[in-house]
Amino acid sequence: MPETLLCALKGCADGYFYIPTLGPFFNGEPGPPKSLKIELLFDNPKLAGDQTGGTSPYPELANYPDGKVDLKDYNWMQYQYGKNEGMVGWDYMSDVVPDRKCDLKDLNTVANNYGGVGSYSNDLSGVTVHFDTGETETPNGDGFVNIPDGATEFHVKKNGSPIGAMVTFWKEPLAPPSAAAKKMLGDGLTWVMM
Length: 194
Ligand SMILES: [Ca+2]
Ligand SMILES: [Ca+2]
What we know:
The strands form two sheets. Strands 2, 4, 5, 7 and 8 form a five-stranded antiparallel beta sheet that branches. A four-stranded antiparallel beta sheet has the order 1-9-3-6, with no helix packed on it. The chain has helices at residues 71-80, 104-112, 179-193, and strands spanning 5-10, 16-18, 35-42, 127-131, 136-137, 144-146, 153-158, 161-162, 164-170. By secondary structure, it is an alpha+beta fold. Strand 7 (153-158) and strand 8 form a beta hairpin. The two termini are 35 Å apart. The site of one calcium ion has 8 residues, from helix 2.
C-alpha cells in the first residue's frame, strides 16, 4: 500500500483532474506521484467548492470537505487566491476548477455554490479512472490505482458517466503482485496456453 501522501485535489462534477507535478507536496516530498486514491465521490454539482471545514483522516492534509459550501470555504479560498502550482503556499485543494491555479474561476465556483449542501459516497462500484495515455484503471478495494508513465490528466467515471471526486496522490506505486500471486498467474498462463 502506498504510504506517503503528497497532496489532494477535489474538482467539479465533470470528474476532470490533472496529475500534480510541481508541488509543493506535504513534508517537502518530491513528486511526481505514482499512484492515486479515490477518496470521495459526488454527483451533486453544488458540492464543488466544498474544500474545507471537515475532519481530515490524514494528519498531513489540513483541508477536507464537510458537505457544505459556506464561509469557511470562501474565506480559505480568498486566502489562496492568486497562487499557482509550484508557488510557496500553493495548496492543490484550492484548485476547484482544476487548471494548476487558484483564480477567479475557482472563487466564483465557491460563490455560485454558496449554501450548497450534500453528501459524499465512497462506493467504488462501477468506478473507473481514464488516463490521457489511454489506460482505463479500476480502483482496488481501497480506491487506489497506479498512475501510468506519461499520464498528465484523467477523468473519474462511474458506470461510464463522469462523476465528481476528491482524489489523493501518493509517492509510491501499488506494490507489484507478490511472488505467490505471480506464480499463480504464471501457472494460469501456462494452463491457458496448453
Ligand atoms: Ca465546507
Ligand atoms: Ca483553478
